[in-house]
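A.,

Following up on our hallway conversation. C-alpha cells first:
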C-alpha cells in the first residue's frame, strides 16, 4: 500500500466516500501520514457533499471550504431541502452550481439554479421529486449570454412528466448516454412525445422507462421508427403498452432487455393488440431490428398466451442469448400448446427449434434459464436438462448444445429436483418452502 501512487489512493478514497459518505475521510487520515497528506491535498474528495436530515450544517460548510474550486458531487435529500437549519448550506451549493458535476437533488432546489451556469459542467442529474424546474431555470445568464458548446450532461434520471418542450431541448442533448424517466401513474403520455424524446438522444446506451401510461395513438404514428443503434440496455416496467413503444424503436446493438410487469390500464378506445407483445416481437424479427448481440432477456408478467409462438420466433433470431428469464402466467402448461412452435420447452429440446431464424437449436448459447410458474411440469424441465444440461451424458440430437448450467423456478410441485441438480451445475426451486430449507442448511 505504501508504494501506491497518490492518484490511485485518491481514486480508491473517492469510491469509499461515495459508498460510505464523508465520515470515511477522518478515519483514513488517522491511518498514516501519507494517507493524511493525500486526503488533505485532494479537494475533490471533500467535494462529495451529502445533505441529509441528520447532516451537521457547520461540518458541511467546513467541508465545502476544503473542496475549494473542485467539481462537486451533490446529494440533497427531499427532507433536508425543507429544513431551515440547512438553508445556509443550500445557499452555498446553489451559488456554486457552476461546479456541480453530479447532482441528485429535489426539483425545488434545481429550480433555484440556472442551466446556463451548469450546462457545461453537469454530467449527471437525478431529480428526486416531481416538478418542472421552470422557465427561469433555462433563461440566459445575467449578462444575457446563452450557453455555448455541447452540454456536458451524460446521465439523466427524473420523475414526473411535462408537455413543455423547454426541458427536452436542454436536458436531452445528443450526448446523453443514460436516461431514466418515471412519469408516474397520474400522467397520460402521448407515445409520439416519448418517441420524439428518444429521437433527440440517438447516442443513448441505457434506457429505463417506469410507471408509464401511454395514450393509444397508433393512427398518427405511421411508419415512424426511432433508430437507437448504440443502445445496449433497455428496461420497461409498469408500462401499460410496452409494444406500443417497442414497435417503433430499433435497437440492433441491444445486449440486455427487461420488460414488465405490464401496467393493466387501458384507456377508452384502445387498440387491444398492443396489450400483447406480438406487435413488438414480430417487428423485432425483421431485418434492421434484430438484436443479434442480446445476451439477457427478462419478461415479467407482460405476455399473453398468444405471444408464445412469436416469442419462440424471436428467440430463434438470438444466437448469443445467455440468460432467459420468463416469469409470466402466459407460460401455464396447456395441452393445446404441445409443439416446438408454441411451447417454449418443446422448442428448447428440438434440434429444429430455431428453424424460423438462424436454424438448428433455439438459443444455442443459453446458460441460465429462470421461470416462476407453478403450472410448469417438472418433466418438461428435466427434458430440457437431459438434452442441454452441461453435465448430461445423454444423446439429445445432433449437435445438441450442452451449455445450460443454471435453472431456477417453481419445480417441486411434482417431486424433487435431484435429477436436475445432477444434470446442471445449479438447479434451484424458487418456492418459499425450498428457499427456507436452503437457508436453514
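Then the amino acids I'd put at each of the 441 positions:
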Amino acid at each position: 500500500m505504501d508504494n501506491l501512487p497518490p492518484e490511485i489512493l485518491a481514486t480508491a478514497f473517492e469510491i469509499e466516500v461515495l459508498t460510505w459518505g464523508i465520515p470515511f475521510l477522518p478515519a483514513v487520515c488517522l491511518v498514516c501520514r501519507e494517507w493524511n497528506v493525500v486526503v488533505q491535498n485532494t479537494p475533490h474528495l471533500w467535494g462529495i457533499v451529502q445533505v441529509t436530515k441528520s447532516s451537521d450544517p457547520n461540518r458541511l460548510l467546513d467541508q465545502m471550504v476544503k473542496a475549494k474550486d473542485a467539481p462537486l458531487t451533490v446529494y440533497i435529500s427531499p427532507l433536508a431541502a425543507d429544513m431551515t437549519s440547512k438553508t445556509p448550506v443550500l445557499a452555498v451549493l446553489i451559488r456554486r452550481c457552476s461546479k456541480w458535476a453530479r447532482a441528485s437533488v429535489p426539483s425545488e432546489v434545481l429550480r433555484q439554479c440556472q442551466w446556463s451556469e451548469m450546462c457545461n459542467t453537469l454530467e449527471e442529474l437525478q431529480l428526486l421529486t416531481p416538478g418542472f424546474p421552470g422557465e427561469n431555470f433555462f433563461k440566459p445568464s445575467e449578462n444575457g449570454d446563452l450557453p455555448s458548446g455541447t452540454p456536458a450532461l451524460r446521465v439523466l434520471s427524473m420523475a414526473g412528466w411535462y408537455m413543455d418542450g423547454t426541458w427536452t431541448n436542454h436536458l436531452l442533448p445528443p450526448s446523453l448516454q443514460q436516461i431514466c424517466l418515471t412519469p408516474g401513474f397520474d400522467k397520460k403520455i402521448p407515445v409520439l412525445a416519448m418517441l420524439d424524446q428518444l429521437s433527440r438522444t440517438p447516442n443513448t446506451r441505457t434506457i429505463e422507462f417506469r410507471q408509464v401510461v401511454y395514450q393509444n395513438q397508433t393512427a398518427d404514428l405511421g411508419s415512424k421508427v426511432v433508430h437507437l443503434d448504440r443502445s445496449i440496455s433497455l428496461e420497461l416496467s409498469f408500462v401499460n403498452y410496452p409494444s406500443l413503444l417497442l414497435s417503433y424503436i430499433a435497437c440492433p446493438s441491444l445486449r440486455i432487455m427487461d420488460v414488465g410487469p405490464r401496467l393493466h390500464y387501458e384507456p377508452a378506445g384502445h387498440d387491444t393488440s398492443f396489450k400483447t407483445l406480438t406487435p413488438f416481437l414480430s417487428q423485432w424479427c425483421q431485418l434492421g431490428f434484430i438484436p443479434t448481440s442480446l445476451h439477457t432477456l427478462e419478461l415479467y408478467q407482460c405476455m399473453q398466451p398468444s405471444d408464445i409462438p412469436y416469442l419462440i420466433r424471436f428467440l430463434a433470431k438470438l444466437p448469443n442469448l445467455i440468460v432467459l428469464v420468463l416469469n409470466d402466467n402466459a407460460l401455464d402448461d396447456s395441452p393445446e400448446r404441445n409443439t416446438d412452435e408454441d411451447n417454449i420447452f418443446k422448442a428448447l429440446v428440438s434440434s429444429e427449434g430455431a428453424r424460423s431464424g438462424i436454424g438448428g437449436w433455439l438459443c444455442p448459447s443459453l446458460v441460465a434459464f429462470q421461470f416462476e410458474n407453478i403450472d410448469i411440469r417438472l418433466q418438461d424441465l428435466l427434458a430440457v436438462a437431459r438434452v442441454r444440461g452441461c453435465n448430461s451424458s445423454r444423446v439429445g440430437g445432433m449437435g445438441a448444445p450442452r451449455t445450460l448450467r443454471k435453472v431456477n423456478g417453481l419445480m417441486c410441485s411434482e417431486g424433487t429436483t435431484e435429477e436436475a441438480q445432477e444434470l446442471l451445475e445449479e438447479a434451484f426451486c424458487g418456492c418459499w418452502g425450498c428457499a427456507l430449507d436452503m437457508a436453514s442448511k
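The radius of gyration is 26 Å. Curious whether your intuition agrees with the design.

B.
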